[in-house]
Each structure stands twice: as structure tokens, then as C-alpha cells.
Amino acid sequence: MRFDPAGALEGSLRPPPDKSISHRAALIGAMCDGPTRVTGFLDSADTRSTLAAVEAVGAAVREGEADEHGGLFVEVEGVGLRGARPARIDVGNAGTLLRVLPGWLAGQPGGGWTLDGDDSIRSRPVDRVAEPLGRMGADVDCRDGRLPPLTVRGSKLRGIDYELPIASAQVKSCLLLAGLLAQGETRISSPVPSRDHTERMLAAAGASIRREGNAVIVAPAEALESGDVVVPGDFSSAAFFICGALIVPGSEVEVREVGINRNRIGLLSILSRMGVTMGGAHESGRDMVVHEIREPGPEPMASLRARPAALSGAEVGPQDVPGAIDELPLVALLGCFAEGETVVTGADELRRKESDRIDAVVDGLSAVGADIEGRPDGFAVRGTGGLRGGTLDARGDHRMAMLGAIAGLASREGVEVTGFDAVAVSYPGFAGDLRALSG
Ligand code: S3P
Q: Which of 72, 149, 373, 393 is the most buried (most CB within 10 A)?
């Protein structure tokens, strides 16, 4: 797919529903007694894998009409906290499903489950969940001790006090679900806070869950109560348009009803360090405006408006990484347009995403003219004020495909993205929405 230089990005759109929250709504819905009604469930390859997985373990899924933003109405009739039936589960490309679901399954004695997925999933480490689950008494096996397929046989679990070696929301979520079925409390501390969608949803379902400093503590539960979930727009999808508007001259883009969970919007603080001015609707002359903030469900949302900004290079370190993990490729792209150097460190987790996102970003952006150098745990970009264009390989990674598209619009000669169809993993309508903004 080819993306030619755009005159400007202009307009207002509601990005697709949040992927992380959609996965959790289906999984936690399956764990509840009774029906969970989800408004605005993301219709994408990854989240369809999660619907199929909860059906495989016995939950009933009823799909209603899609809303005007493409969000599905989904009703999940749960099997209850201890009612998952044995199954083989195909997680497709969904790392969140692969890492979070075993936590629930591990605490159900008598059951057996195998989780496997596509070629990319088979290279995603699962020892990060197998190891702490093992400490809880779980019976988990994986290939070479670290890769899928992953087999779980349900057993009696005990609560643990666990310090996450990496600030992963997927691992934290897995252990929180296991903690519901364990004997005694489970305490998980994290070096840096990560997205807390699971905590919010479990609290809404009646679980006893509390925060103490950098730790979250969950108590065993008899049952979870079902309720309604409203899924906000996905900040990680919206970020492509926000960053596009910052670097395509003449742009003015608004993204509406976007989730602004404080552990997801680390990109905004990186942007302000890069010189982007931010304010509310009443403040004039800002590059970015955050307005219409509201909280209709367990998650806050807002509208964000962006236009071109004079960018300067910035340093992004380990403290910034969990809150902006999926947006770091965009930071590299912005760095190409910034004055000075942008350096990202402490982000070796990027090597274990849908692709090795350090190599994919460095090779992809170099191929379209960037002055960028890879490091073991990040990259350094020297801003040259623009990008030439060329061919960028998405490497089967949805976020790389979207990065290539935005790079193309902001480039001088356009970008050909190979493997663009990977966008279906999180944002099947991306090209159409981008076309609507670029006129
Ligand atoms: C996710 C957490 C992040 C993120 C991924 C989705 C989640 O991964 O990169 O796209 O839904 O919890 P880690 O928690 O492994 O960093």
C-alpha cells in the first residue's frame, strides 16, 4: 500500500475501541456469573481471538449491531470464576490473550488447556507468566521453558508476594486473575506503574483489590458480578493521527472519546518535552488541546485536538516506557522532524512485541531516509527536519504498518508499506479513516 505526501490532515474522528480494554471485558465477562454487556467492543482480529477463546472455555457470546464507530455490542454470558471447560485455544496474534488468560485457567483444578497461535506468537516469551504462576503452585508447561504452545493444568494456587522484573501490564493482569482463585492474598509490585484496566474492571465486578504504593493486592473471591462496560477509543490508535497532525503541515485533527487512563498517555508527557504546547479548550494558541473529559464507565475519556508543532529532541528513559510502550515507534518518527537528537533508552521490551520493534523501527525508518541508530534497549534519532520516503516493511506488525503510513504522508516522496494488511490486528478501518482525514 502506498502513502503519498498529504497536503494536510484535517477533520474529526472517533478512533476504534480500545484493544486492551476489549480483551479484558471479554475475559472478565467470561469469569463472571451472568451476562456482561460491552458497548463499543473492538472488532479486530486480536479481539475476535479473545471472543473465540471465551467461547471455547464455555462462555456464550452474543453479538449485537455495530455502533457508528464500528464498535460492537457484545454480551458475554460468563461461566463463573471456576467454570472454564478444558479446551485448545488459538490466540492468533494476540499477546494479551496469550499472557492474561492462563492466570484464570491455572486456578481451576481438574481442567487442562493449551494455548497456541500464529508464527509471531510462537516467538513471544511466556516464561514471564509461567514462572510466577509456578510460584503460586500452578502447573504450566511451555516449549523450551519459555515459548508457546503453553499448557496449563488447573491446580490449587496460593497467593504470593511478587516483584515484577519488567513493568508488564499483561503479566500483572495474569497474576491478578490467578490471585482471585488462590489461597490468601496476592501482592504484585511493579518498578514503574503500568495500565490498570484489569484492576478497574475487577473492582467494578466486586473483587477486593487495593493499591499500596507501587503494589496492587488482590484477595481471593467466591464469584465476580457481571455489569456493563463502555469501551473508550484506543489511545494507541489515536496516537497515529495525533502524531500525523504534529508533522504534516497545515493539519488540524481531532480524535474524540479517546481513553486517557493515566498509565496509557505517557506519550503526552513525552510530546510536551519535545516542545508541544498543551492546554484545555479555553486556552488559545496551543499545539494540542485536551477537552470534553468524562468518565462514563470505569475508564476516563477525552477529545484531543492537534496541529503542527515545532519539535525538539527529547530523552525518553525507563520511567517513561510502560506508559508509552506502544507509542515509542511514533516517538522515533517525530524525532526525524525534531530539532536535535531524540534518544529512547530502557525500552528493550520493544524487542518482544509483535515484531522486534527496535529493529523494525530502525530498519524501517532508515529505509525512508531517517538518521536513526539502534541500541540494545532503544534508539537514537537525529532530526533532519523531514523524511525522504521509500519502502518500509511492516514485518507483520500492525503498529509498524500504521507508522509507515503516517511516515508516507509526512514524507517528501511517499512511502510504500509492504505487509500493510497487518493493520487488521487492531485497526481494520485505518486506511479508510486516514483517507478521510487526508482528503
Ligand atoms: C498490553 C500491555 C502492553 C502492550 C500491549 C497490550 C495489555 O504489553 O504493549 O500492546 O493489554 O496489557 P506489556 O504489558 O507486556 O508491556
A: 72
Catalytic residue among 320, 326, 397, 433, which?
Answer: 326
Does the pLDDT value for residue 69 go beyond 80? no
* Mean pLDDT on 383-395: 96
- Ligand 1-lining residues (CB < 6 angstroms): 20, 96, 168-170, 173, 194-195, 325-326, 349
pTM (whole model) above 0.90? yes
348 in active site = no
**Could you give the CA distance from residue 139 to residue 149 in angstroms, rounded to a whole number?**
14
Q: Which CATH class is domain 19-230?
A: alpha beta
pLDDT tens for each residue of 103-126: 999 999 999 999 999 999 999 999
Q: Which residues are within 8 A (CB) of 421 and not within 5 positions of it... i.e. 6 or more apart?
A: 401
Cα distance between residue 288 and residue 55, in whole Å? 42
- CA 204 / ligand 1 centre spacing (Å): 21
Q: How many residues does the chain have?
A: 439
Which part of the chain is CATH 3.65.10.10? Answer: 2-16+232-438, 19-230
For ligand 1, the distance from its centroid to the CA atom of residue 195, given in whole angstroms, is: 8
